[in-house]
Specification:
Layout lengths: L2 H14 L10 E6 L3 E7 L5 E8 L3 E2 L2 E2 L2 H19 L5 E6 L5 H13 L3 E7 H9 L4 E6 L4 E7 L2 E8 L3 H12 L3 H9 L4 H23 L7 E4 L8 H9 L3 E2 L7 H6 L6
Helix pairs in contact: 2-3, 5-6, 5-7, 7-8
The structure holds adenosine-5'-triphosphate and magnesium ion (MG).
Length: 270
């Protein structure tokens, strides 16, 4: 299965509640994002088996701001997956923005523990993404709801990482102002394929700002291409804007929002 097919089938499992036939033991991953909490399940061969998600407001700027909300969301999503798969999960991996403090990492761990899950692994977000993309070296740019994360990987480890506050949230603010609509209406407008041209005209400077963050972060590194992931990368023109600013080819999978969450479950085998 190509990585594109793997991501697309995980996206269907999350969106439609589909379940695939597993080979061997199941592993669970938990991704706590600014906009979404996503749980992923893979089998022994790292194939996506199931997934579940919920809109969330429990994390802001890489920090868990609503601990109780995070715990109850993880518990609920875990139960949904257990019912779908007829199994019980006792452990899970969790991903974190690279470079956060020990104390902040502990909060992410504690969310799992409070949801009755032993922590099998704490993995950097770009490392999780790189597993899905099948790369050990290169650059992963993750544009989520709150931040733009730019990471350089060497030998499967993060050697440089920058995380700055520009994401889909900032696009919503700009759209709400331009069209005089509420924040929630701006969020819907942004994702409406029929309005893609209008939306792009308004959010283009925000995408260019994200690309400039990436440009500064990768300066001095020899790269042949960059990988673009995260929900905000779903905008049809996002790769072109990054390619123009960076002067490099940009690879974006069809369902960029699901790359990092899927990779969280894929560890713990080496
Ligand atoms: N089809 C789409 N078009 C444009 N934007 C989209 C689309 N689908 C999702 N998004 C945006 O992607 C963002 C959520 O992406 P993602 O789940 O990667 O963020 P997150 O991981 O929760 O945030 P962060 O990584 O900043 O903590 C939201 O701003 C959402 O509006
Ligand atoms: Mg994210």
């Amino acid at each position: 299965m190509s990585y594109e097919d793997t991501i697309t089938s995980f996206a269907a499992e999350v969106r439609e509640g589909e379940v695939s036939e597993p080979a061997g033991a199941l592993r669970l991953g938990v991704d706590l994002g600014t906009a979404n909490i996503v749980l992923s399940v893979v089998d022994e061969e790292d194939r996506p088996i199931a997934g579940a998600w919920e809109h969330s407001t429990v994390v802001r700027d890489g920090i868990v701001v609503d601990w109780a909300g995070a715990v109850s969301a993880v518990c609920e999503l875990k139960e949904i997956l257990e019912n779908r798969l007829h199994c019980r999960f006792t452990q899970a991996a969790v991903d974190i923005p690279p470079g956060i403090s020990e104390g902040t990492v502990r909060v992410f761990r504690n969310v799992l523990t409070a949801a009755n899950l032993a922590v099998s692994e704490v993995v950097d977000e770009p490392v999780a993404a790189a597993r899905v993309l099948g790369i050990k070296d290169g650059c992963v740019i993750d544009i989520g709801h709150g931040t733009t994360g730019v990471s350089i990987l060497q030998g499967g480890k993060v050697v440089k990482s920058v995380d700055e506050p520009t994401g889909g949230h900032h696009m919503n603010l700009v759209l709400a102002g331009a069209y005089q609509v509420s924040y929630d209406e701006a969020e819907d407008l942004k994702k409406d394929p029929k309005r893609a041209d209008d939306v792009f005209g308004v959010v283009r400077p925000t995408l260019e700002k994200m690309a400039t963050i990436a440009q500064r972060a990768i300066a001095g590194h020899q790269l042949e291409l960059v990988h673009l992931v995260g929900g905000a990368a779903s905008l049809p023109d996002a790769p072109d804007v990054f390619a123009a600013v960076l002067g490099l080819p940009v690879v974006r999978p069809l369902e960029p929002l699901f790359v990092t969450p899927l990779g969280v479950a894929m560890g713990g085998k080496e």
